[in-house]
Amino acid sequence: MKKIIVPVDFSPNACNALQYAINFANKVGASIRIIFVKKDKNYENRFMVKEFANSGISKAEDLLKKIVDENQSKLKTEFEYSVRHGNIAEEITNEAKYNDAYMIIMGTHGASGFQEFWMGSNAFRVVSSAPCPVITVPDKYKIKKIDKIVLPIDMSVATREKVNFTAELAQTFNSKILIAGVSEGNYPRVVNKIKKYVEQVEKLLDSKKIENESFQLSGKNIADTIIDFSYENKARLISIMTEQVPNIANAIMGTYAQQTVNHSNIPVLSIRPKIN
Question: pTM of the full predicted structure?
Answer without folding.
Answer: 0.88
